[in-house]
Specification:
Radius of gyration of chain C: 21 Å
Largest sheet of chain A: none
Order of helices and strands of chain A: HHHHHHHHHHH
Order of helices and strands of chain C: HHHEEHHHHHHHHHHHHHHHHH
Number of helices of chain A: 11
Strand content of chain C: under 5%
Largest interface: A-B, 96 and 79 residues
Chains: A mainly alpha, B mainly alpha, C mainly alpha
Shape of chain A: globular
Number of domains of chain C: 2
Strand content of chain A: under 5%
Number of helices of chain C: 20
Helix content of chain A: over 70%
Oligomer: heterotrimer
Largest sheet of chain C: 2 strands, antiparallel
Radius of gyration of chain A: 23 Å
Chain lengths: ~325, ~110, ~500
């Protein structure tokens, strides 16, 4: 209990630090630390899947994205933001609003009614019928597979916009070789190890914590490391292959989800007797495709070379 | 008060802290980080509060997993736009009032 | 025929599957065959829509458990009268915008490649929202819709569009988080997420009330209801015309649709008349502020965008006119509110497409450039003119019928103050629309310097405008459709 209060305090303190620190770089570093603390919190909330996801996606990928963006927003060249904060009046209102929300939320949390429906019991009862043994995988790919389908579409949209803005003005991504020679050498055995971890996470997902999203995050991290070290990524420069790779996850999900529908059954009901196989195939395709998508989120950001800074752009 | 509820309360605090940062700051990166903090608070409330009522529950955990992925997609999309915006205008924040957007772009066309 | 319709498997999920496949195809193939792919999928979607209308007429409301999992474990789709109306309007407007874009985008070769997948994702997410009855699924739908729409705004990569897209994105993100916070409280308190199941269960404790307030706040921000509308005019005014049309006609309506479902279906026991009056007051503010700002604009597309702010205000009248009033008054408000949404969707899409054509023709964005349009480009002006009739609420348009129903409802429940809003708003819209007409008939040159847009561009706008007009003449059918949702629903 005391540990929990301490962890909660550290979490709030770090969050306040993220918002208040003057130096933007330190703020981003604190943000990554916040993500790692969140992963610990998820362990305490008995959500190991979320701990894995938070560490890989919340802290890892989001942190890399922020650091990378920071590198491209040159603070010396940026027209100085004269006001860091809003005008005093607006700031005062914001404080009042936040204070009010805190109070109301506190009351709402204390006053929250006991639910009349006990979904965890229903999940347990139906777990056998879903074809997988891990309840979270069952929720994600069976009971609420529709959410997951749309969520993959959400990532795809983000990547599409990234691609659209990147190629709309023929910018090449900056060459980002930032790794030390030592780390470069370590990659030789680090990369195969990461691949194995990804496959393990994917496989274990149907029994225990793990699954497509966590595995994909590891794959994406692999690709980011390879990109940063200049290691060639197979098929990387082939735009056509990239496209196919991006769409294969959602495509296979849709196709397999429609098999039962076309044969007179229900959309997203996996074919009878093939539930587990279908889920594994979809998860495999998702891992590959999501890995590529998550990597593309990093890669597709428009990163103009310094020389092009003076160019007027498209307007 | 069980462990789950402590974290639900933490989530509440985190949400309003994030909200404050989101409104208060003008730098787009800082506002985006505030958005992510708010999101984390929201996820903590969802998992913590429902589990404080009926024990470990796979459904909110799965919902939060979806939420985390959606949040990182939104963050990535925002970063893409911020970079392009910075590339075109040299600004790291949006102009305070909407009408001055046009001034920014006409200045940029001259330069 | 009827037996055939009954035997056809339920087609509901195809409304989402088809546009997703479209997005994937156009993404994988790039610019190759883009028009063919679009044509095939639009045809399939329109056909699905038609069959669904037939099925609905025959069988009544349709429900569909995804993956064969029943609520509360699984997610349920439902097609009632209102959802069917929304799906149909979405098909019509998006098809017309696609037709417009297929020609208009010839000037934007780079944007073309990514326009089509984003359009398909937008269509998919709209259908997700119309059909979904699950609060969290609606959140995912809202995010998919928001990100696709932001992408469409930013598509040209130009400074103004980017600034608008960023502002839009930040508003949308804040809105969805507020909504999600509400969902978190609802799930914790009730253990389920299905809207029909929740209706009747909700109680007015602090937790539920805060949940509803947060969700309302988020949805109002996403619908750009005054005074949370700041992001809308630049986003809608600076995007490409087919995108502006889509955003104003449909995208902002999606969050409003959820808001109505939340208030008048699930939360009817919790919401109080004073809150409903407050929502109406926000609407009144939107009508007057939006109208005033529209009149002050010098750019044609910005004028049309502020007109959207004003027109969205009328929608908000549905809350005070339905909460705590007699069933007759509520019935009138229900039909009038939805009819206003549909009429505005058709007319505003037509108006934005026409405005895009006019800007293309005069090669400049401001209203002064319109001098001589009446003489040299009567056909391009026709779409704008016809759409204006519905926006102003003149008979026989759909806009007139909608306001007429709202007015009758206000009379029936004795809330005369909303009559002032209806009358004043109509007068204001007449002022800013006639400002445009007037410029078109100033003839200070004998030379036709205009670039003449292709026939297809004008046709797509005129078709939508004619639909908006005929909605008033044939309003009995949509009214009957909308009425069933009220009697069948929890109201």
């Amino acid at each position: 209990m005391i540990l929990d209060w301490l962890l909660a305090g550290a979490l709030i303190g770090t969050a306040a630090g993220v918002l208040l620190t003057r130096d933007l770089y330190r703020s981003v570093v604190l943000f990554i630390i916040f993500g790692l603390l969140m992963a610990l919190v998820w362990v305490r909330v008995e959500a190991p899947d979320l701990a894995l996801a938070e560490a890989a996606i919340g802290a890892g990928l989001t942190g890399v994205l922020f650091l990378d963006a920071l590198g491209h927003l040159n603070p010396d060249k940026a027209a100085a933001v004269r006001q860091k904060y809003r005008q005093p009046l607006l700031s005062g209102l914001a404080f009042l609003l936040a204070l009010g929300v805190t109070g109301l939320l506190w009351m709402a949390l204390v006053d929250s009614p006991q639910p009349g429906v006990h979904l965890p019991e229903i999940v347990d009862q139906q777990l056998l019928a879903s074809g997988v043994e891990h309840p979270i995988t069952a929720v994600l790919l069976s009971f609420r597979a529709y959410d997951t389908l749309l969520e993959v579409a959400v990532i795809l949209v983000a990547v599409v916009v990234g691609l659209a803005l990147r190629f709309s003005q023929e910018d090449q991504p900056a060459e980002t070789q930032v790794l030390s020679p030592l780390l470069q050498k370590m990659l030789v055995w680090l990369l195969p190890l990461m691949l194995m971890v990804a496959i393990y996470l994917l496989w274990i997902g149907s029994y225990r914590s793990g699954g497509a999203f966590q595995a994909a995050a590891v794959l994406a991290a692999m690709a980011v490391l390879m990109r940063m070290s200049g290691t060639p990524i197979p098929g990387h420069s082939n735009l056509y292959l990239l496209r196919i790779g991006l769409v294969v996850g959602l495509g296979l999900f849709l196709l397999l989800g429609s098999v039962d529908l076309v044969s007179g059954g229900n959309f997203l009901a996996w074919p009878e007797g093939w539930e587990k196989a279908s889920i594994l195939v979809v998860e495999g395709a998702l891992t590959f495709s999501l890995g590529m998508l998550l990597f593309s989120l990093f890669e597709a950001s428009p990163a103009p070379k310094q020389a092009s800074m003076t160019r007027g752009g498209g307007a | 008060m069980n462990t789950f509820f402590i974290y639900a309360l933490t989530g509440g605090l985190l949400s309003s802290l994030g909200l404050l940062g989101f409104i208060l700051h003008r730098h787009l990166l800082r506002r985006l980080m505030a958005f992510n903090l708010m999101g984390s608070g929201c996820f903590l409330i969802l998992t913590g509060l429902s589990q404080s009522h009926q024990g470990v529950d796979a459904v909110p955990q799965a919902l939060v997993l979806t939420g985390i992925v959606v949040a990182v997609s939104a963050t990535a999309l925002a970063l893409v736009l911020i970079r392009r915006w910075y590339h075109l205008t040299g600004q790291t924040s949006l102009p305070e009032d909407v009408q001055s957007l046009e001034k920014t772009s006409s200045k940029e066309a001259q330069g | 025929m009827s037996s055939l319709l009954q035997e056809l498997p339920q087609l509901l999920p195809w409304l989402v599957i088809l546009p997703l496949f479209w997005a994937l195809f156009s993404l994988a193939l790039g610019v190759l065959y883009r028009h063919w792919i679009a044509g095939v999928f639009i045809f399939l979607l329109l056909a699905t829509n038609l069959i669904l209308i037939g099925q609905w007429l025959l069988l009544g409301d349709l429900y569909y458990s995804l993956g064969d999992w029943d609520v509360p474990l699984g997610i349920q789709l439902r097609l009632d009268g209102v959802a069917l109306a929304m799906v149909t309007v979405t098909s019509l407007v998006t098809a017309a915008c696609s037709l417009h874009a297929s020609t208009y985008l010839d000037d934007y070769p780079r944007a073309q490649q990514y326009f089509w997948p984003l359009l398909a994702f937008t269509w998919a997410s709209l259908n997700v929202i119309w059909l979904s009855a699950d609060l969290f699924n609606l959140y995912v739908g809202l995010e998919l819709l928001g990100l696709s729409a932001v992408g469409l705004v930013a598509l040209t990569g130009q400074t103004e569009a980017l600034g608008a897209a960023l502002r839009y994105l930040y508003a949308a993100l804040l809105g969805s988080l507020a909504y999600l916070l509400g969902v978190a409280l609802i799930y914790s308190g009730y253990g389920q997420l299905d809207l029909p199941a929740l209706s009747g269960l909700l109680e007015s404790d602090a937790s539920t009330r805060l949940a509803l307030a947060l969700m309302t706040l988020g949805l109002l921000l996403k619908t750009a209801i005054f005074p949370l509308h700041i992001w809308l005019p630049p986003a809608h005014g600076k995007a490409l015309p087919p995108v502006s049309a889509l955003l104003s006609a449909l995208v902002v309506k999606a969050s409003f649709y959820i808001l109505v479902r939340l208030w008048l279906e699930a939360g009817l026991q919790v919401v109080v008349p004073s809150a409903a009056q407050f929502m109406g007051a926000l609407g009144a503010g939107a009508v007057f502020w939006g109208g005033w700002m529209a009149w002050r604009q010098t750019e044609l597309k910005m004028l049309v965008a502020y007109s959207t702010v004003a027109q969205l205000g009328y929608l908000m009248l549905i809350f005070p006119l339905m909460v705590g009033v007699s069933p007759t008054a509520a019935q009138l408000a229900w039909e009038g509110g939805w009819l206003q949404l549909i009429a505005h969707a058709l007319a505003k899409a037509a108006m934005f497409l026409a405005a895009g054509n006019l800007v293309l023709a005069m090669r400049r964005p401001d209203i002064i450039g319109l001098h001589g349009v009446g003489r040299f480009l009567p056909f391009s002006l026709l779409g704008f003119g016809l759409a204006g009739v519905s926006i102003m609420g003149l008979p026989p348009s759909g806009g007139f019928m909608a306001k007429w129903l709202l007015l009758q409802s206000a009379l029936a429940s004795g809330q005369w103050w909303w009559l002032l809003v209806l009358a004043g708003g109509s007068a204001l819209s007449a002022v800013y629309i006639f400002k445009v007409y007037q410029q078109c008939y100033i003839e200070d040159t004998e030379v036709d310097n205009f670039r003449h847009p292709s026939l297809l561009l004008d046709l797509s706008s005129i078709t939508l405008a004619l639909l908006a007009l005929s909605l008033g003449i044939f309003s009995a059918w949509p009214q009957a459709l909308l009425a069933t949702a009220l009697s069948g629903g929890g109201v």
